[in-house]
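Data card: per-record layout.
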Amino acid sequence: MKSNAKLKELTKPWAAFNYGFLDESAKREIRRRLLKAIAVPGYQVPYASRDVPIARGWGTGGLQVTLTLLKPDSVVKVIDQGADDSVNASSIRKFLGKVGGATETSDTEEATLIQSRHRIPEEKMREDQILVLQVPNPEPLRPVQPDMSIAREMHGDADYGQLWLVLYEQLVKSGRIMQGSSYPSMVNGRYVMTPSPIPRWDVPKLDQADHLTILSAGREKRIFAVPPYTSVEPLVFDDVPYRVEDHQDKTCHRSEVTGFFMNELPQEDGTSRYELSDSYFGIKNIRKSEGEPVNIGATWYNNGRMD
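The structure for this 307-residue chain is written out next.
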């Protein structure tokens, strides 16, 4: 009996979670940091990253921002490397619906809040939409300067010479710049950022975009942003133009759509098949080809080229 009584004393009565899971002080702090990040595009703002029910490195930074921006009338879409139906994307989307009462969707056109890991949707986003990108490593200078105190001084001085040197060495050794993702980009003519591990294909989508993009690294405790209608310029040499992946002639074997970013699927006979990385964009095209009334928005690229 004594053991049972003690257990009851230790057990707290059931209570509902705070709306959006995070406590109000955490949300308030993140909102303040977001305002600073938007006011100084590309600048890394430190914040007190909280624990959320997923492991560090699996999108905790993006999730905290999304939970802070969440409203009961939000329509949320979650992407994991282009897919809406992966375990990570599905789990986060269901969690957002459970703790915030938000409507879940896979359609870019319907969403008001999009959280993504390593991709930007192929359909253009609008002014009333917010893109939250998960970032594992927010520091573009880390490969050339591991001392973060010195790296911050370099940001303060706009000293990015070592990044240019890395790109030049790639060009000399390989004949082309080999940086495939996290391509260093100048924001608003001042700060160089790493735009998360999105492919080069997606970087031009951030330049003068209609929507707000927020990038958050939970493990590194950094938030930075690209406000609407802000210049995002990949670091390039005057005589070596920026090149995206050459997917102009690639056709999705499922939707038969051509000229968008594809995943390569090696086959047993040594050949390759291709599949649209933006999974729901492919589904919409399949449904449209079958005669369903589907609304497909305008796209950043057409026939493999940016408009």
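Known properties of this structure: The radius of gyration is 21 Å. The helical segments are 2-10, 24-39, 60-69, 87-100, 148-156, 161-174, 279-289.

See the next section for split statistics.
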